[in-house]
Amino acid sequence: MLVRVKKIYKKLPLGAKLKIRKYVLHRDNSKVKIKGKTLNKIDIEPVGYTDTQLFNKINQFSSKALEKRKNNYKFDMVSRYTEYRNLPIENDTILFETFHGKSMTDNPYALFLEIVKRDKEARYKFIWVLNHNPSMDIQAKRFEGLDNLIFVKLGSDDYIKYLATAKYLINNTSFPPYFVRRKEQKYLNTWHGTPLKTLGKDMKGTMGQHKNLSRNFLQTTHILSPNKFTGDILVKSHDLDGIYQGKIIEEGYPRVDLITNTNANKYKKEILGKVVRLREGKKIALYAPTWRGEVGEVGNITSGLLKKYRIIADNLPENYQLLLKVHPLLYKYIKDINNFANVVIPDELDVCEIMSGVDLLITDYSSVFVDFLVKDKPVILYQYDQDEYLEGRGMYLDLNKLSFPIANTDEEMKVLLHNVDELSSVYKEKQEFVYTQNGVSSQKVVDNLLNNSSDMCVKKVANEQDNILVYCSSPQYFKADFINSLVDQNDNILLWFSGKIDNEAEEFFKKLDKKVKIFFEFESVLFTSYEWCEYQYLMKNNDHYELKEDFHRIFKREIQRSFSEINFSKAYYLGDLQSKHYLSLMEKGLDCPLYIPYNSVESILDYQKAEYFSPKLRTILEQFNRISNVLLSEKSLYESLNIRRNDISYEVLTLSESKAYLIPSEILIRKNIILIFRNNKGKQLQNLLLSFFNDLYDEQRNYIIYASREVENQLKKYDNIYFIPNNIDRELYLHLLANEDVVINFSNAATDKNIAPLIKNKNEKSYLFNYDPLNILSGLSNNNIISLKDSGEYALKVKNFLLQQEINALRG
User: Fold this and answer.
1) CB 425, CB 376: distance < 8 Å
2) Helix (H, G, I), strand (E, B), or coil: what is residue 305?
3) Which residues on adjacent β-strands are paired with residue 530?
């Protein structure tokens, strides 16, 4: 069914609101507040809430959302992609992308040729990402008669739609950061060469430069590896080992099939010969250098390239002609320069098809020579700047140990060229790198992708260990220590970092154990326009039961965006306790048995800051911090925590909704008495303090007082009294201290809203004494919660209780 938005709106009354699969449309004063466009196969349904005010409240954000879509291209693109994810999957549609739409080449191109050859009945719809006009592309023009081939530009509306709906996705690099593979989609990442140069986290430079690539690999269902060396590097350098859920296909590169299977004479006559000048009877030497990108001016780049080209061309034997194939980043600079006319090969053409007719390959640091090994033809590595190049670029192989002839100077290059017919054409690297290349790799990969054929080597790298997620936004060193401590548990530890990657963060990453897998959170959350309005409501208001399902879907999708189908058994939140977004992201987005929104004592209390705490309290906190991994649970704001005080190890507590939370079992030292003072002023406060300490003070116990500075000033004479300022993490301390054996609450029940949750969460094995002269809390009391009406009563009962506790201990 076709739904034309503008026509629908003309039939709506003013103020009417419709939801099209979470795509909300508004009509106000006869103005359509959304693009009038055709949406295919989308059901229309009215939006309704039991709470009649809820939609109006959310709708307040709609104009802002539409304005944001209008003025923010990135937001518009992401929201359109999220909306298209609601469309059905197109089961016979295949999307191909190479180098972010630069060309129709490489492994995706070779697989495309194989599928086209099989698709006699035009069953499939082929989507090729191409950023320039196909009619000006010599490669694309070869397929003008293919009616089921569609070209789309990267980031266009059609691209976004097919990325969200195509059943099969084939890429040799990565899809955009907003891409999240749907469960029904199959995503094959072929990569684009044997990695001689370092990849991922092994690269020199800033951490996180590979973050979208690591995320893309996790999204795939298949990764193609032409040899064990490549597979191991891709897995290790992108932290996939132990956690990747898809298949590693160890099979030859489809593009290398083009070297051995292409009819070289036909290709030269019909394709290559139309874009460069080929001389009859001459062998072809191909110079394919890497673009270094270290020179700022195009003139210097072309000047240096021309010089090296002339050295090669002038010293080749007479029976050779020299062609030039440069990196795509360089091609655009030299394609129109006269000196390279008739010799530079257009960037659109596939280098493997070209190499089917090449007799001598000259390159430097490019892995193209690995593909060329199947030809059993000579290779020369022209590395005139080896020291300079390697200084800024890490390598996995020692270039000087390769069996290929290497020229480090122009003179050495001339000598090799003068003796080119004497060069070896068989190299030891062939057995290591191209042992899988047998000319039928395209067929086998297509069979596995489309038909689930198992006629190839398929590896799984996921292990049986638990996956532990640690979210962190600020790079404090004590957090690194805690994360490293988790490594000893023999689990897969994944750090999810959302902070700024600056020098401090770089030092933080260096402190982490090498086994910690590092992934990065992306800034823009995936929202439809309507979900964005819901989200804005959530961030400014309390959660609403009618929005619960939507929020779970939004945040689960965001978790899936970074980690695909990885299941976590435990998650630690080491982020900002004030960040409602990230707390919601972790709590609502994760499906794992243990969700632990923790911060360490050092983080929450910052006990090293003298202006916050007295030296005596810092002494206690330092003692806490010597306990292994002492952390405080923010989750105690919402759930009750039952703690076994005599167990130093972590206590696992199963709570509602099948979730469990951890807290160190001995967070406070034994024999503490906790006193809580809030909203008590003047004479009342002074009388309470004097009465309590006159009747009950015991120098053998520690008194930890949660109160204002006013209280601290009145009790300076006592050595065993420690203060926690009540302006720091108030709710957290009310709950944690409620698990001490003895908690005496002097807060004003008439004005302190935190009294009720304190009583609700009281441990049944400990006692809470409430000073409650107005008997406000009597209806909430149980056997362990005692409301006291006057100073004499509470003093007597507390004293008797403490005495009885000591007697019981002696008897026990």
Assistant:
1) yes
2) helix
3) none
* Beta pairing, strands 650-654 & 660-664: antiparallel
Of 171, 225, 232, whose CA–CA distance to 434 is shortest?
225
Q: Within 13 Å and on the Cβ side, how many CA atoms surround 772?
A: 21
Q: Which of 698, 691, 745, 741 is nearest to 719 (CA)?
A: 698
* Side-chain half-sphere exposure of 160, counting CA atoms within 13 A: 18
Which pLDDT belongs to residue 39? 38
CA geometry: angle 604, 606, 608, nearest 5 deg:
160
Angle between helices 548-563 and 529-540 (to 10 degrees): 110
- Distance CA(458)–CA(59), nearest Å, equals 51
**807-to-180, 633, 798, 801 alpha-carbon distances in Å:** 64, 33, 14, 10
Which two structure tokens, joined as six digits, stand for 412?
A: 């050495």
Q: Can you list the positions of beta strands (E) in 377-439?
A: 379-382, 406-407
Q: 179: closest CA among 129, 127, 217?
A: 217
Band of the pLDDT at 9, cuts 50, 70, 90?
A: very low
DSSP string, 396-412: SS-GGGSSS-EESSHHH
Over residues 226-237, the pLDDT tens digits come to 999 999 999 999
**Cα(481)–Cα(199) distance, rounded to whole angstroms?**
27
Q: 151 forms bridges with which residues in the sheet?
A: 128
Beta-strand runs (E) in 463-557: 467-472, 492-497, 517-520
Q: Name the one residue in this structure whose structure tokens are 């919660």.
A: 785
Rounded percentage of the chain residues whose pLDDT exceeds 90: 45
Distance set, CA 673 to CA 5, 722, 743, 767, 784 (Å)? 67, 10, 6, 11, 15
Contact yes or no for 686/707 (Cβ under 8 A): no
Rounded to two decimals, the pTM is 0.74
